[in-house]
Amino acid sequence: MPVEGGSSSGSASAARHPKQKRKAHSLSIRRTNSIEDRPPGFQRGEMLEGQDSKLPPSLRNNLLDLFGQIEREFENLYIENLELRREIDSLNERLTGDGQTIEGGDPTKGAMKTKASHSTSQLSQKLKTTYKASTSKIVSSFKATAGSRAVCQLLKEYVGHRDGIWDLGVTRNPPVVLGTASADHSALLWSIETGKCLLRYAGHAGSVNSIKFHPTEQMALTASGDQTAHIWRYMVQLPVPPPPPDVSAPCDDDQDSSDREEGEVDAEGPCEVPTVRVATATLKSHQGVVIAADWLVGGRQVVTASWDRAANLYEVETSELVHALTGHDQELTHCCTHPTQRLVVTSSRDTTFRLWDFRDPSIHSVNVFQGHTDTVTSAVFTVGDNVVSGSDDRTVKVWDLKNMRSPIATIRTDSAVNRISVSANQRIIALPHDNRQVRLFDMSGVRLARLPRSNRMGHRRMVCCTAWNEENQSCNLFTCGFDRQAIGWNINIPALLQEK
Known about the structure:
5-stranded mixed β-sheet
């Protein structure tokens, strides 16, 4: 609690004094049968004389000895209590005497008292300010949560992986499906509307760390801990959305789990779905974990990022290595390509991200940006001329490609930021955090909303990645995390911008 100015020592001592009195009084009541109150020659065995007891004499003597030991312990506590009372009384007298002397005219002591009182009042004011700030922060977070429920609604949960999900993505052309990459060595394709698992890719021998879809064809690019990246084709047929539920029908909550239809997805794993085990192309030039991969514009080349501190550029048709992009001092964490230009950005644990320019075939320039103080977990392009970078230093920075000497906006958060994504149409940044939160910001750094999170809704562990889908009239955001599930959210853009 804040202190209302003045010296706190005297008031604290005065506050403790009556407590000590009450404690001593209670102890004195318990000692009414102590040794000092007994007449001379009084023995312990005489305490129970005249009382009916069925206990054997030996057991009674043992009990009396034990009670005697307990009594001696209380005696020691009582003596210590009296000594503490005397010390407190003497300290109170000294403080009172010093106060009289200071007021009598010793200028040095008077100045010391004034300085101490001033510092105490400053501390009190600081505590009050901190308390008010923390309280207002709590209240504002409650307001944001209440508002986010109106703009962010749960669409579907996609449960079926047997380990944490590192990455996810949405196809750019029909059929529109959701893809997830997991540490269980598999990648799954899902129906967005029904949440049904459509296809499983099991060609990797290690954790699948990234998944990206070809811009025009039904091909997927996955990066893995087995030091390779795979390109594989898929063919899926979207299921027919179920009819709206009949209001007159009985509630489904009473349905027993054994009555489920065969083929449903449960928490133990995906149902029996078509499985692809052979890749169309395997990219093998890395000497470490391949942590991310992406298609260049046009889909004829791909770029991969690895823990061997290099990013590689490959030809899709021949699987040949075109360029090895070296220069980072530590492991790479992410790579991203520009949607319309031959630009690549790579991020690293060395606190930097690099911009690689392949627009001129004869010149491959690179620029290094040092805007963060910890691992840069991801850096992504926007449809415009911006790059957005997120870091373990709990910040997100927005950069202008035309002038990247300093960020044009900085977002400060309370937790490390993982793989971010930016919506193409509305340019909204989705931030996944280590503390299970997902927050939405605009490009100027203004917070728009926070996705709902409770025991029944949202992620229960770290959120690893976000991805947007704006192909339909509605705007959907997908998130994934270490709790082995992906979640789809319907974002009400008009309501979101209205709250802004």
